[in-house]
C-alpha cells in the first residue's frame, strides 16, 4: 500500500513511475555564498560525501582571522600537501567546478593504479570538499570502514587507528571509528603503526603522526599539575642526575662532604642550564645534566700518572684540571654552534653515525659496571632485579591511573633496596669484631679487619659521614674549588669529546621532536641548541661539577614513558632543583647512598643508553648490508682498539683497582710523536670507545655509497617551513624580546 501511495504522489508531481534517479540541480559557485547554503543544498539534493569507502580527513579548525584555510588534501587526485602548515590558496574554477591553486606546492604523487581507480569515484565530491564551505560538511560526514581505505591514504593522513588524523603537521579530529574496540583485546602498551615502510622515504620532513602526550609542548594545565609532572620528569631521570658524582668524587680522592657538595652543585647547574636551554636553546623540553659522554674522559684524566700518586689535595687538583679542560671544550662547542658550522656538519651526521656513537657511550663502562657493583652483591643483585621487574614485567600495572612502576622505576627501586640495606646494617650483617668502618683500610693493622674493610665501605648504609658533616644551607658558587688550570693535553681531549656530545644531542633533538608531535627543528635551531649547550658547559666548568653539561640521552625515554612533553613542567622542575641545591642536607642524603647501590642503577642506565642509541637505526633500512656492516664494524672496533691501547700499562695493575685500568692508557699508550702532550691526548682519545665508534662510523657512512632512504638521512625542517607554519615557529623561535637582538643570526634559527 505504501508503495502504491508513493507512486500516486509521484504521478501527481509530474515524476514518471519507476526507479529513476532524482534530478540534481546544478551548483553554481559564487564568491559571496554562505556555508549554510552548501549544507542545505547537500540535504536538498541528497549529496553524500563518502565516495566508495575513501578515508576522509577533516579540516583542522584554525583561527578565524587566518586566511586561505584549506584541507591540505586533494582526495580527487590522491595527493597530499607537503611542507608548511599553511596550504596554498584554493579557488573554485567557475566552469569545471574543480579546485585550482594560486601558488605551487610540493606534492607527492601516489601510485598510478590507485589514483586511476579513485579518480572517477571522487570527481563528484572533490569540488564541494575543497570549496569554502567544505569544512563544515566534512565534519558531518558519516563513517567509512577503515579496512576499505587504501594504504596510502593512511600513510599520508597519519591515521593511528583511533580515528585521529593529521594534515600538514596540524592536529585535526577525524571521524570516530564505527565500533569501539574490545577492552579485553586491548594490549598494555599503546599500539603505534609504522606508517613508513623501510623502502620508502617519508615526505613529511620527519613528522611521525598523532601525539599520545598528556600535555604537549605549549599547553598550560595549571600550576599544580605542572609541579607534579615537573617532579615526575626529574624523578625518572634521578639516576642520571645524581649518581655521576658518586662515581667520580671517590675516584678523585674526595671525602663524603665533597661528594655532597658536588651533588648540590650539579643540581644547581642542571636547573640553571635546563631553563637556559628551554628559553634560548632548542626550546624542546629536554633536561640538561652531567652527561655520561664526559664521564669516561674524566676517569681517563684522573687516572693519569701525574695524578694517581697524589696524596695531598688530590681531589682539588684533579677537579681544577677537569674544570679547565671542560671550559676549553665548551668554548669550542659554542663556536661550533653559534657560528653556524653545526648546520653544515648536520649533512654528515645521520642515524648510521649516531647509533654506534651513543651505544658506545654506554658500552664504555662495561669493565667498570658490575665489577664495582659486585663489591656488595647482596645489594646490587636485588637492585638490578627490581629495576628489570619494574620496567619490563610490571610496566603495564596501573595504580589509580598511574603506571608508577614504569615511570618511577629508579627512585622506587632505590628506596626499597636502600631500606633493605639499612635493615642489613642495623641487624649486624656487616659487623665484624674490632673493626670500624670509618677507619680507612690503609690504616687498619689487623689483617682480619683489612679483609672486611672493602665490604663495610660499600655495603653499610652508615659508612658515609656526609650527613654529619654537611651544612643545612649552602649555596654553590663559581670557583669554589679554586682557579681552573689549563693544559693542552686535557684540552684536546675535551674538544673532541664535546664534538661527540654534540652528535649525541643531535640524535636526541630529532627523537624528542618526533615524540612531542612537532616537526623536527631546522638546522639553525639545532646549531643554536648546540651553541647553548656549549655555554652551559662553561657554567659547569666555572662551578666545578666535574663534568660538562649537555642534553641527557635518556630524555627521549623519559618523555616516552611519562607522556608529558610540556616545556613549563620541565622549567618548574628545574626551579625546584635549584631550590634543593641550596639545602646542603639534600646533597648529603643522596651522597649517603651506598656506592654498590648507585653503580647497580648505573649498570641499568648504561644498558638503556646502548639500546637508545641502537634504536635510532629505525630511521634507516636496518636490513641493508651496508648499514649493518658499518654499525657492526664501528661497535667492534670501539671495543677492540681501546683494548689494544689499554694493554700498554705494565705498572697500572699494581696501583689502580682492576675496574680503573682501562682508563689509565693515556700515560702509557703506544703512540710516540715526540710531544708528551700530543702523545697523552692521542692515547687517551683512542682508548675511549665512543671516540673510536664515532670516527669509524663517520668515515664509513660518508664514503660508502648509499641512497638517502637506505642511510635514513635525517630530514630537518627548512627556514621556509618556519615562515609558512606558525605553530612550528612558535615551537622553536626565540622569545620575542630576545629575538629582536638576533635578527642578524639567521644561521642559528633566530
From TrEMBL:
Membrane topology, record value: Multi-pass membrane protein
Regions of compositional bias (Polar residues) in chain numbering: 47-59
UniProt keyword annotation of Cell inner membrane present: no
Start-end of Basic and acidic residues biased regions: 30-40, 60-79
Keywords, ordered alphabetically: Membrane, Transmembrane, Transmembrane helix
GO cellular component: membrane
One Pfam family it belongs to: Xan_ur_permease
Keyword Thylakoid: no
Superkingdom of origin: Eukaryota
Principal location: membrane
UniProt subcellular location: Membrane
Family named by the database record: Belongs to the nucleobase:cation symporter-2 (NCS2) (TC 2.A.40) family.
Protein name, UniProt field: Nucleobase-ascorbate transporter 11
Organism (species): Nelumbo nucifera (Sacred lotus)
Source species taxonomy: Eukaryota, Viridiplantae, Streptophyta, Embryophyta, Tracheophyta
Amino acid at each position: 500500500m505504501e508503495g502504491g501511495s508513493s507512486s500516486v504522489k509521484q504521478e501527481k508531481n509530474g515524476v514518471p513511475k519507476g526507479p529513476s534517479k532524482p534530478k540534481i540541480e546544478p551548483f553554481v559557485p559564487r564568491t559571496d555564498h554562505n556555508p549554510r547554503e552548501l549544507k542545505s543544498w547537500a540535504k536538498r539534493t541528497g549529496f553524500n560525501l563518502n565516495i566508495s569507502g575513501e578515508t576522509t580527513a577533516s579540516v583542522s579548525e584554525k583561527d578565524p582571522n587566518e586566511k586561505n584555510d584549506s584541507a591540505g588534501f586533494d582526495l580527487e587526485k590522491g595527493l597530499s600537501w607537503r611542507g608548511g602548515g599553511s596550504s596554498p590558496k584554493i579557488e573554485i574554477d567557475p566552469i569545471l567546478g574543480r579546485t585550482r591553486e594560486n601558488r605551487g606546492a610540493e606534492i607527492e604523487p601516489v601510485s598510478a593504479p590507485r589514483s586511476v581507480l579513485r579518480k572517477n569515484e571522487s570527481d563528484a565530491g572533490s569540488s564541494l570538499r575543497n570549496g569554502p564551505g567544505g569544512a563544515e560538511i566534512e565534519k558531518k560526514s558519516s563513517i567509512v570502514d577503515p579496512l576499505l581505505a587504501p594504504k596510502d591514504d593512511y600513510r599520508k593522513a597519519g591515521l593511528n587507528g583511533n580515528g585521529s588524523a593529521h594534515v600538514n603537521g596540524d592536529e585535526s579530529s577525524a571521524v570516530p571509528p564505527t565500533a569501539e574496540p574490545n577492552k579485553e583485546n586491548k594490549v598494555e602498551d599503546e599500539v603505534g603503526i609504522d606508517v613508513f615502510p623501510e623502502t620508502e622515504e617519508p615526505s613529511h620532513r620527519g613528522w611521525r603522526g598523532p601525539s599520545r602526550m598528556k600535555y604537549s609542548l605549549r599547553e598550560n594545565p595549571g600550576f599544580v599539575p605542572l609541579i607534579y609532572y615537573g617532579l615526575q620528569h626529574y624523578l625518572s631521570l634521578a639516576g642520571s642526575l645524581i649518581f655521576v658524582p658518586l662515581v667520580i668524587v671517590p675516584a678523585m680522592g674526595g671525602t663524603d662532604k665533597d661528594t655532597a657538595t658536588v651533588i648540590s652543585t650539579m643540581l644547581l647547574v642542571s636547573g640553571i642550564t635546563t631553563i637556559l636551554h628551554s628559553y634560548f636553546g632548542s626550546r624542546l623540553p629536554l633536561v640538561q645534566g652531567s652527561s655520561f659522554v664526559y664521564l669516561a674522559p674524566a676517569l681517563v684524566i684522573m687516572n693519569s700518572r701525574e695524578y694517581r700518586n697524589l696524596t695531598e689535595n688530590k681531589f682539588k687538583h684533579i677537579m681544577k684540571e677537569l674544570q679547565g679542560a671542560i671550559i676549553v671544550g665548551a668554548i669550542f662547542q659554542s663556536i661550533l654552534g653559534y657560528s653556524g658550522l653545526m648546520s653544515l656538519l648536520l649533512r654528515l651526521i645521520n642515524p648510521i653515525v649516531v647509533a654506534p656513537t651513543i651505544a658506545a657511550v654506554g658500552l664504555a663502562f662495561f669493565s667498570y659496571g658490575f665489577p664495582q657493583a659486585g663489591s656488595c652483591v647482596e645489594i646490587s643483585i636485588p637492585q638490578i632485579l627490581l629495576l628489570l621487574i619494574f620496567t619490563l614485567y610490571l610496566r603495564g600495572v596501573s595504580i589509580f591511573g598511574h603506571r608508577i612502576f614504569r615511570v618511577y622505576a629508579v627512585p622506587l627501586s632505590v628506596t626499597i633496596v636502600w631500606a633493605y640495606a639499612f635493615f642489613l646494617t642495623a641487624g649486624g650483617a656487616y659487623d665484624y669484631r674490632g673493626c670500624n668502618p670509618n677507619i680507612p683500610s690503609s690504616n687498619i693493622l689487623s689483617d682480619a679487619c683489612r679483609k672486611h674493610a672493602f665490604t663495610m665501605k660499600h655495603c653499610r648504609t652508615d659508612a658515609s659521614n656526609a650527613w654529619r658533616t654537611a651544612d643545612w644551607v649552602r649555596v654553590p658558587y663559581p670557583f669554589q674549588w679554586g682557579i681552573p688550570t689549563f693544559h693542552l693535553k686535557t684540552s684536546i681531549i675535551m674538544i673532541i669529546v664535546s664534538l661527540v656530545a654534540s652528535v649525541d644531542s643531535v640524535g636526541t633533538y630529532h627523537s624528542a621532536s618526533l615524540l612531542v608531535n612537532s616537526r623536527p627543528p631546522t638546522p639553525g635551531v639545532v646549531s643554536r641548541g648546540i651553541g647553548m649547550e656549549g655555554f652551559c658547559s662553561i657554567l659547569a666548568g666555572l662551578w666545578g661539577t666535574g663534568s660538562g653539561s649537555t642534553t641527557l640521552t635518556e630524555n627521549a625515554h623519559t618523555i616516552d614513558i611519562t607522556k608529558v612533553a610540556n616545556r613549563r613542567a620541565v622549567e618548574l622542575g628545574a626551579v625546584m632543583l635549584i631550590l634543593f641545591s641550596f639545602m646542603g642536607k639534600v646533597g648529603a642524603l643522596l651522597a649517603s647512598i651506598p656506592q654498590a647501590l648507585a653503580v647497580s642503577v648505573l649498570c641499568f642506565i648504561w644498558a638503556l643508553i646502548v639500546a637508545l642509541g641502537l634504536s635510532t637505526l629505525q630511521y634507516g633500512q636496518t636490513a641493508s648490508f651496508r648499514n649493518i656492516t658499518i654499525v657492526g664494524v664501528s661497535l667492534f672496533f670501539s671495543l677492540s682498539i681501546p683494548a689494544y691501547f689499554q694493554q700498554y700499562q705494565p705498572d697500572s695493575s699494581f696501583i689502580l683497582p682492576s675496574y680503573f685500568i682501562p682508563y689509565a692508557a693515556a700515560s702509557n699508550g703506544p703512540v710516540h710523536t715526540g710531544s708528551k702532550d700530543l702523545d697523552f691526548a692521542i692515547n687517551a682519545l683512542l682508548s675511549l670507545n665512543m671516540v673510536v665508534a664515532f670516527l669509524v662510523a663517520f668515515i664509513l657512512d660518508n664514503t660508502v655509497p648509499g641512497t638517502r632512504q637506505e642511510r635514513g638521512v635525517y630530514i630537518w625542517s627548512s627556514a621556509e617551513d618556519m615562515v609558512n607554519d606558525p605553530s612550528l615557529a612558535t615551537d622553536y623561535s626565540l622569545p620575542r624580546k630576545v629575538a629582536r637582538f638576533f635578527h642578524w643570526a639567521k644561521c642559528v634559527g633566530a
